[in-house]
Amino acid sequence: MNLSGEMLIGQNNVKGINQAIYAINPANNQTLDPAYLGGTQEHVNQACTLAWQAFDIYRNKSVEERAIFLETIAENIENIGDLLIQRAMDESGLTRARLEGERGRTCGQLRLFAKTIRAGEWLDIRVDEALPNRQPVPRFDLRQQHIALGPVAVFGASNFPLAFSVAGGDTASALAAGCPVVVKAHSAHPGTSELVGKAIQQAVKQCNLPEGVFSLLYGAGNIIGSTLVEHPYIKAVGFTGSRNGGTALMKIAQNRSEPIPVYAEMSSINPVVLLPSMLENNPDTLGQAFVHSLTQGAGQFCTNPGLVIAIKSPALDIFKKSATEAVQQSMSQTMLTPGIFQAFLKSVNTIEQQNKVSLLAKGLVSPDQNQCQTHLFSVDAIDFLNNELLQSEMFGSASIIIECKNMDEAKLVIEQLEGQLTATLHMDQNDMEDAQRLLAVLERKVGRILINSWPTGVEVCDAMVHGGPYPSTSDARTTSVGTAAIFRFLRPVCYQNFPDDLLPDAIKQSNPLKLSRLINGERE
Ligand code: NAP
To answer: Which atom of ligand 1 is nearest to the CA of 156?
Structure first.
């Protein structure tokens, strides 16, 4: 399949007319063909209008038809074959193994959402039957189900060109919910986006769905993205990227005459706490395991362990020595884009210049382009508490060890942290009391709490929460990974006093779809 550089607006392939985007291979700074000419506001309008026209038809398709659609997308992505992996490697600098794994995750995720919607729990059916003789007032028959919110704008992420991009978690969960999707492709991987976009476009046709169920737009300079979020036919937004980008889109969405939800996943530094007994018994292995997690994928994960919190002790000195040695031996890795590399350099230089911060170690250097050199810093808790800058995300392999006088000070550090996607406790049985004290604070701060594991690597499953209080996300009540992500794109509707014939099948009295329901307060 040749790349055309065209946008996909429904079933039409359209060349833009605005400033061109070229992918850049970050390993050598070479520009990759073809040019992706940017779309116009009229292109945004066409995609959103088609999405709106498709909405009622698509959301009323049977669950089985939508599930088959998701499975067809997965199959089409797999059928692209090595071309997809090769292009994604060229555009992102990520390794073949990583991208093959990510493709598996992307297709697995689409199939998991197919299974989820077939199971029906997402409809959250509640029935309160009529009580005509209730005193002092009778009760009408009341029934609730969830329906799709409307067309969703999705912003692909740079750090997961497959699993968080055109057919990633946001798109999969929105399509599963019954929402058409308009994707704004990330400018870092336009060719990967086109290949995956065509797989979805083809699946729309194969499944006889209205063409507006899916569109893919390109554009530099934020115009396409902001016009998309402003468009009255867009009813929700999924975004993964920078805090600046996410908050800009939140403001646009709030300033519309009809404000809409923005589900933005932004920045997180994912504190890891080493509790005293665990640290005392395993300082060396913990140091090595930490650096292994820190350096995965050049640290370009939203769950990268950017902060280690521990109490000063001889064991902490051994941990620092072990981590320092591991960092010094860590190979440099190509970052996703020249821009992300520059942002990484700026952030580590800023931290290095902060008063009272020590640079413990730097990783190996390489003459290649856009190389992430691992950085490890340390600072006393008191100095961390007095410097807000030390809480900024350094997107890449960089982390700070916070050295505390005692557990009270460690608790103070955690209390001062902004909202996070994850927090990790390394502990054993003797640390139980300290863990309990910290948990009370951590539950308020983060979306996922881990014991004796590392935050990088996010399982796609029913129980996963990949979310957390601001600024890790814009809405702590939900998740962008796992099957619960579907609830972002649904809303409840109550049907009062309906004749049975007029009710949707999901809430008819005879329960023809055999769904699990809450009837008069009892689970059926
Ligand atoms: P980004 O700059 O936030 O861009 C993400 C997407 O949003 C792109 O499609 C971008 O369009 C669009 N966008 C950004 N600001 C916008 C605005 N004001 N109005 C409309 N659209 C807007 O993120 P990035 O390029 O992926 O990476 C930049 C930095 O973000 C990184 O250095 C890192 O610090 C952070 N980041 C964090 C995570 C995380 O998971 N925590 C993930 C990725 C990146 P264009 O493509 O046209 O620019």
So the answer is: 9
Same domain, 82 and 177: yes
Q: Determine how many CB atoms are found less than 10 A away from the CB of residue 162.
A: 31
Among 302, 403, 404, 409, the active-site one is 302
Interstrand relation of 7-9 and 214-217 (parallel, antiparallel or unpaired): antiparallel
Which residue, by CA, sits nearest to atom 31 of ligand 1?
Answer: 340
Residue 83 lies in domain: 7-94+147-266+476-489
Write the DSSP assignment of 18-33 as a string of letters: EEEEEEEETTTTEEEE
313-357 pLDDT tens trace: 999 999 999 999 999 999 999 999 999 999 999 999 999 999 999
The reply to whether 357 and 216 lie within a common domain is: no
Distance in Å, CA 419 to ligand 1 centroid: 19
Name the domain count of the chain: 2
155 in contact with ligand 1, CB cutoff 6 A: yes
* pTM for this model (two decimals): 0.97
16 contact partners, CB below 8 Å, separation of at least 6: 7, 36, 37, 38, 39, 40, 43, 218, 219
Give yes or no for residue 184 CB within 6 A of ligand 1.
yes
Tokens found for residue 264: 């933005």
